[in-house]
Amino acid sequence: DGGITQSPKYLFRKEGQNVTLSCEQNLNHDAMYWYRQDPGQGLRLIYYSQIVNDFQKGDIAEGYSVSREKKESFPLTVTSAQKNPTAFYLCASSIGQTSGRNEQFFGPGTRLTVL
Amino acid sequence: GEDVEQSLFLSVREGDSSVINCTYTDSSSTYLYWYKQEPGAGLQLLTYIFSNMDMKQDQRLTVLLNKKDKHLSLRIADTQTGDSAIYFCAGVSNFGNEKLTFGTGTRLTIIP
């Protein structure tokens, strides 16, 4: 079964702690993305990676960090510097071509709650 | 960059047609997409339309594109309770940037 997995589904964190969200894909996609979703709002791009060992900041990168050491994996760390980390986090991947169809496929999401 | 707008809520009676609207700003958008999000889940790609098309039909779904007005719509025929979800439109331009810009989403509620 090809797809994108995210773990865990629910995550609780105490204030001041860093936490890492996992995202794995077996679609052989080059590009991967992290979004944040808050109630009543659309998706906001945190970071994206077009190729292994390279990534770029999205619109709301402050307080987050990523790595892309393997094509299949794009973990997101929510650091203690992120002021309001409670949200629903979505990972996505796409073929990564810069022209033509390049739809993104999404994982099931991780709901992070800061206590 | 691209800016995409949608109305936030839509209520439709079961069996009627639902029409979800979206406007975008980037006239260079080559592909426009519709995604569906059920509660607590990720986004599921429903359909897409290429910018040189006016209409695309896929079973109960019809996408209409008015390039002049930069207006996109998704029509769901014979709306069922399982269609209750948030629907997002998304666009991408063709300048070497494969990022998608998503609308705020339209929450579709089905009235029995």
Amino-to-carboxy terminus distance of chain B: 40 Å
Largest pleated sheet of chain A: 7 strands, mixed
**Overall morphology of chain B:** globular
* Beta fraction of chain B: over 45%
- Helix count of chain B? 0
Largest sheet of chain B: 6 strands, mixed
Gyration radius of chain A (Cα, Å) is 13 Å
Uncertain segments of chain A are none
Kindly estimate the percentage of residues of chain A that lie in beta strands according to DSSP: over 45%
Helix content of chain A: under 10%
Structural class of chain A: mainly beta
- Give the total of beta strands of chain A: 11
SS content category of chain B = mainly beta
| Number of E strands of chain B | 11
Quaternary = heterodimer
Number of helices of chain A: 0
Helix content of chain B: under 10%
Low-confidence stretches of chain B: none
What characteristics describe this protein?
heterodimer, A: 115 residues, mainly beta, seven-stranded mixed sheet, four-stranded antiparallel sheet, globular, B: 112 residues, six-stranded mixed sheet, five-stranded antiparallel sheet, 0% helix, 55% strand
